[in-house]
Write a structure and sequence with these properties.
The chain is α/β, with parallel strands linked by helices. 38% of the residues lie in helices and 20% in strands. A six-stranded mixed β-sheet has the order 2-1-3-6-5-4, with helices on both faces. The longest helix has 13 residues, at 24-36. Keywords: Molybdenum cofactor biosynthesis, Nucleotidyltransferase, Transferase.
Length: 176
């Protein structure tokens, strides 16, 4: 199976990071990835406030520490303190707009306010960074939509081979 994959899970929330409430969103990402992946992987978890410099530094640190994938939750709405997409764009070499387009399209099936979401994705070195919404139910809906493309994206960046439980999620890899 090859090397163990390191995956960053970053919850961006002023209130959760201050201990006002429990971080259910970060746990939702971990649970979803545990359902998807049969390959060996290790979560690198961070819980930080909605502060752009801190978000940028956390993303840089996780990429430098060898994460092939970083999944963020929170900070993607229109509120003044929602700056996760700006932080992501600031640290990425190239943006992957299709992720945000597909996540919004999927979310629109459930809520008309999906158009207010600004989630995006991009590449920093050989790391894919994906911004997800903050609600645990929306996290699963969005990951179900975009994750089939994630293992192949990581293959193209020469990252670890992510093997999935195909009864749960079927990754797309072109026949060679």
């Amino acid at each position: 199976m090859g090397q163990q994959a390191k995956i960053g899970i970053v919850t961006v929330s002023d209130r959760a990071s201050a201990g006002v409430y429990e971080d259910m969103s970060g746990q939702a990402i971990r649970d979803t990835l545990s359902d998807y992946l049969v390959s060996d992987w290790q979560a690198e978890y961070r819980l930080i406030p909605d502060e752009q410099p801190q978000i940028e530094q956390t993303l840089k640190d996780l990429a430098r520490e060898g994460c092939c994938l970083i999944v963020t939750t929170g900070g993607t709405g229109p509120a003044k303190r929602d700056v996760t997409p700006e932080a992501t764009e600031a640290v990425c070499d190239r943006m992957m707009p299709g992720f945000g387009e597909l996540m919004r399209q999927e979310s629109l099936k459930y809520v008309p306010t999906a158009i207010l979401s600004r989630q995006t994705a991009g590449l920093r070195g050989s790391c894919l960074i994906i911004n997800l919404p903050g609600k645990p139910k929306a996290i699963r809906q969005c990951l179900d939509a975009v994750f089939p493309a994630v293992p192949y994206c990581i293959d193209l960046m020469e990252g670890p081979y992510l093997e999935c439980n195909e009864d749960v999620i079927k990754p797309f890899r072109p026949k060679s």
